[in-house]
Specification:
Oligomer: single chain
Strand content: 5-15%
Strand order of the largest sheet: 2-1-5
Distance between the termini: 117 Å
Shape: globular
Helix content: 55-70%
Radius of gyration: 28 Å
């Protein structure tokens, strides 16, 4: 049977779907590029492009930022998988067959696992590469929102991450969708809710960055609240939630509430500190001022030059004093 989805309330019937974007032979093998992977990659690329364009404005060296991003991205994907495995109903099966843990192509990535890991690893990498952590986090959250908004459409092609039954006009059905509690009835397209919310969030965060940016970390705190509010609501509609073992508590809702509270507390203290210092908008570094040279790399050369000049001056002074003493001794004798 061919895959399809439909939106009967909107009069849209049987939209043909395929999980595969393109398939072709290469060196005797069949290469299969899926929509899900392609859309995630495209979201990541657009997020990176955005960060590259904005980085010089907040004094971030692009080369150093790329070092942070590449390492963090790998760790984030790995942790998104481990997060899913740990909270999955099939954790016993994963432990019995460890080779399945890293079979990402079989499905199973938890966005919160990736986000948490990205911030933790990103902070460590920023410290190592001497990048302003909160300034980079502000660029990163706009990228997250862009990537999530685009990547969620991979769920559409896979017919996953949908919600419970609904009688709203945009409710959808599909050949792989199992409606709950009534099979065959339209369900909430929760992937669409999150996609639209994240894309709107990316736009609002960008406007905040351009017009109302008062301190580094402001966008980071706002993102925690923005995404936390949406996810805490939408997660309650989904039928594939991960639960804290032995409890009826959905993991993503618990983490979302922590994100909302944490973001609010963070913004409160950061705004108060910025207000004491005189609340003014962050002054962007102009293209002329940004030479893409890390100041930490330039300082040693200047210091050595200054020390060399001081040594030369000292030697000249000693030489002059010695000459004067010799002249005096000559006169005495």
């Amino acid at each position: 049977m061919d895959n399809y989805v439909a939106f009967p309330g909107l009069g849209i019937d049987r939209i043909p779907l395929s999980e595969t974007l393109v398939e072709f032979p290469l060196f005797g093998m069949t290469v299969n590029i899926r929509w899900y992977g392609f859309l995630i990659a495209m979201g990541f690329a657009l997020a990176l492009i955005y960060a590259f364009r904005q980085a010089p404005k907040v004094g971030i060296n692009r080369d150093r930022m790329l070092d942070v991003v590449l390492v963090t991205a790998v760790v984030a994907v790995l942790c998104a998988r481990l997060y899913y495995v740990f909270f999955s109903d099939h954790v016993a099966d994963y432990l019995a067959h460890p080779e399945k843990i890293f079979a990402i192509w079989d499905g199973g990535l938890a966005i919160y696992g990736g986000i948490i890991a990205a911030f933790l690893m990103g902070a460590l990498m920023c410290r190592w590469r001497k990048v302003n952590t909160f300034a980079l986090f502000d660029l990163a959250v706009v990228g997250f929102a862009i990537g999530q908004g685009i990547g969620r459409w991979g769920n559409f092609f896979n017919q996953e991450a949908y919600g419970i039954n609904t009688d709203l006009p945009w409710g959808m059905v599909g050949n792989q969708i199992v409606g709950e509690p009534v099979h065959g009835m339209p369900v909430h397209p929760t992937f669409l809710y999150e996609s639209l919310w994240c894309l709107l969030g990316a736009l609002l965060l960008h406007v905040m960055f351009k017009k109302f940016y008062y301190f580094h970390g402001q966008l980071f705190g706002a993102y925690l609240i923005w995404y936390g509010v949406e996810r805490s609501f939408v997660e309650g509609l989904r039928t594939d939630s991960l639960f804290i073992p032995g409890t009826p508590i959905r993991v993503s809702q618990a983490v979302s509430l922590l994100a909302i509270v944490g973001g609010a507390v963070f913004l409160f203290f950061m705004f108060r500190r910025a207000k004491k210092a005189g609340l003014t908008r962050v002054a962007f570094v102009t293209a002329a001022e940004s030479e893409e040279v890390a100041p930490e790399e330039a300082k040693p050369t200047i210091t050595l030059q200054e020390e060399t000049v001081e040594e030369i001056s000292t030697e000249e002074t000693i030489s002059e004093e010695t000459t004067e003493e010799d002249d005096e001794h000559g006169k005495d004798h």
